[in-house]
Automatic annotation (TrEMBL):
InterPro entries: Metallo-B-lactamas, RibonucZ/Hydroxyglut_hydro, UPF0173, UPF0173_UPF0282_UlaG_hydrolase. Transmembrane segments: none annotated. The lineage of its organism: Bacteria, Pseudomonadati, Bacteroidota, Cytophagia, Cytophagales. Keywords: Hydrolase. SMART domains: Lactamase_B. The keyword Hydrolase applies. Belongs to the UPF0173 family. This is UPF0173 metal-dependent hydrolase ASU33_05255. Residues 12-204 form the Metallo-beta-lactamase domain. GO terms for molecular function: hydrolase activity. The keyword Hydrolase applies.
Length: 245
């Protein structure tokens, strides 16, 4: 059923569910199989129209993603080496929307741009080895109601985030803040300033011992920016992007 505005649900750790005003469901970096950080009742989504994958690390890339795609019939946009791996797992090429960094495409009424991310990655193969080495990506999603979501994926802060602000004017940024493997709160605060966003949803923190960054630290680093709001969502919580000023 169509929504009045774009809805953002934090599934847990690094996974998100976006529902467009037209009722299309987009999953970003779904990891459900035996995931202790996503509520179990969310592990088997009834609807998925599009799946976006930023990179192949197993906390972003479900080991049973091919099965999810087959069950839901969702189209998929993935980091290119991740896409090649999914081909090898039997996912039909027709189910993909191939693209690469810097390109844009319109899918199901959403304008999607694949962006840079600075994060080395691989895929844990079924035989226990690591393969398909690659760099991660991010995504800009522009919805029909004017919501523009920047899903950074796992990344370091980088100066060209300023260009993302100039080109796409994101209204909400999904930023990792855990530190050690991605940006921490200091760098994420810098990213928010470069992106010129007024709303930040932090993720990739507090789930593993190494991920020590907190929303409170991020807020402290943004204390001079009184108009920037931090939305520290609990797993399963929904943010109505149409209600954001």
């Amino acid at each position: 059923m169509p929504n009045a505005s774009t809805q953002l649900q934090f599934l847990g750790h690094a996974a998100f569910r976006l529902t467009s005003p037209e009722g299309r469901v987009i999953l970003i970096d779904p990891w459900f199989t035996n995931n202790p950080f996503v509520p179990e009742h969310l592990w088997q989504p009834e609807q998925a129209d599009l799946v976006l994958v930023t990179h192949g690390h197993d906390d972003h890339f479900d080991a049973n993603l091919a099965e999810l795609l087959a069950r839901t019939g969702a189209r998929c946009i993935a980091q290119p080496q991740v896409r090649f791996y999914l081909y090898s797992q039997g996912v039909p090429t027709a189910q993909f929307e191939p693209m690469n960094k810097g390109g844009s495409i319109e899918v199901l009424g959403v304008r999607i741009t694949m962006t840079l991310a600075f994060h080395s990655a691989h895929i844990d193969l079924p035989d226990g080895t690591a393969g398909f080495p690659h760099e991660g990506v991010g995504f800009i999603l522009r919805f029909s109601d004017g919501a523009v979501v920047y899903a950074a994926g796992d990344t370091a802060v980088f100066g060209d985030m300023r260009l993302l602000a100039e080109l796409y004017q994101p209204t909400v940024a999904l930023l990792p803040i855990g530190d050690q493997y991605t940006m921490g709160p200091l760098e994420a605060a810098c990213a928010a300033r470069l992106l010129q966003v007024r709303h930040v949803v932090p993720f990739h923190y507090g789930t593993y011992p190494a991920l020590k960054g907190t929303p409170e630290q991020l807020q402290a680093h943004l204390s001079a920016e009184a108009d920037v709001r931090i939305h520290a969502l609990q797993p399963g919580a929904v943010l109505d992007l149409g209600q954001l000023a």
